[in-house]
Amino acid sequence: MKIIKIILAGPRGRMGREAVELIQREEHFELVACLDRVNEGKRLSDLDGFPQIDAPIYKDPVKCFQEIEADVLIDLTTPEIGKIHTKLAVEHGIRPVVGTTGFNEEELQELTELADAKKTGVIIAPNFAVGAILMMKFAQMAAKHFQDVEIIELHHDRKLDAPSGTGIKTAEMISKTRTPKQQGHPNEEETIQGARGAETKDGIRIHSVRLPGLVAHQEVIFGGEGQSLTIRHDSYNRASFMSGVKLAVETIMTLDVLVYGLENIIE
Ligand SMILES: NC(=O)C1=CN([C@@H]2O[C@H](COP(=O)(O)OP(=O)(O)OC[C@H]3O[C@@H](n4cnc5c(N)ncnc54)[C@H](OP(=O)(O)O)[C@@H]3O)[C@@H](O)[C@H]2O)C=CC1
Ligand SMILES: O=C(O)C1=N[C@H](C(=O)O)C[C@H](O)C1
What we know:
- Helices cover 31% and strands 24% of the residues.
- By secondary structure, it is an alpha/beta fold.
- Helix 1 links the parallel strand 1 and strand 2.
- Helix 5 runs parallel beside helix 6.
């Protein structure tokens, strides 16, 4: 099997550390460099927790992409930085697998056009966990039968973006099958701002909970006459995301367009 050469952005992060282990485990993956906000010029093996992983660390993505021969960038950083890395990677012919969340519609459109122009595969995956993908697909199916739905996403309190990428993606998928409806009482008023959550342009409410002790969880609650349906997914650790990262890295080698969401890859 051909070796896939990978640059990893964010190796010291919660997801980044899991991704380093994944790359180490897979014989056909090779970590050729890392992008980090600090530790420029060091090797990964110089840092705590990465014994014997001899990959150079860069701060400047352009320098890294020019000097290092790589097939794929895995980005697990922050919303602001992830967008910059993704665009630069495509411009340098390196295929980005992006787990970082916080991309808006305009940014996704811009990247789609760039991927087309450069004929370079891009995968933007708001959630890599197979259970979360199924939760979103099941919610899309249920929305054919229930017009009223609210999303509650629950995450650890170190998360920067709200609502979560998964919450937004779920609402988008539901909107494809749900007949539009203004939910709740037409005259309802928030006596405390934000009480009804964030409203998407299709009228679906997303409520974001942030608490220590949580990892990544979501409930999609449908309401109908005399009944409700709740679809829930829980990630209890970050290892839950790694089979999706592996699949994305392997699949991106065969793509020349942008794919938004692993539901487009997982049958
Ligand atoms: N798609 C999915 O399935 C999942 C996606 N995520 C997303 O992945 C992203 C990372 O999450 P998580 O690992 O929990 O976050 P962390 O905060 O633990 O990790 C982010 C890492 O990015 C680093 N970083 C910041 N700026 C730069 C930069 N300029 N260059 C390189 N690295 C930088 C941070 O360094 P420092 O700490 O020094 O600032 C940190 O090590 C988030 O957007 C999150 O929403 C998370 C889980 C699953
Ligand atoms: O920040 C996280 O932790 C997660 N982020 C992603 C999101 O915003 O949906 C995926 C998962 O929920 C974990």
